[in-house]
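Recall the central idea of this unit: under ordinary conditions, the amino acid sequence of a chain determines the structure it adopts. In this exercise we apply that idea directly, starting from the sequence alone.
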Amino acid sequence: MNRIVKIIALVLLLAMLASSLFVALAASEVKELPRADDVAGERTGVADYTLTTLDGKELRLSSLRGKPVLLDFFSATCQHCQAHAPFIVEMARKYPTLTVINLASNNQFVDGEKVEEYRRAANIKNTIAYAPYALFAAYLQPNEQGIVGVPQAVLFDAQGKITAHFTKWTDADKPAIEAAIAKQIK
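Accordingly, the structure predicted from this sequence is:
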């Protein structure tokens, strides 16, 4: 019994150390990367992050100014993300001047194969990039149940201002989402 208690104590200690390390790394990342101005009613736009695409290229969000942009936050292992992916693909196809960037959560970074499988299964043709933790922290909002998770999407106009934030993906929500996207396409 004494040995089991020691093992449990060691596991708890390691979990606390890992958690502290994660918080420290996340905090240092947030200091290095700008955060979106997210004051209620004054959402001013996209912070300038550099992303790594699925094919290993760098993409600066600031390079997208002048175009409407939809940032689609997902996790390759999320069933809700897999269910909404065809709608995002359809919006990208229907509105070719809309730049759609699918952003994989950091937990996928070490396993690009899962993200690649997700891309193939959903037939995603637009850019997929790995999002740093700070980008998720800057833009993800709680849903109606108060849970911060994926899928979510943020729509920016051509000037880089946030025009819509989507946390719901039911069939009933899709017409409003498409209307918000169509409004940005001129």
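The two ends are 70 Å apart (CA to CA).
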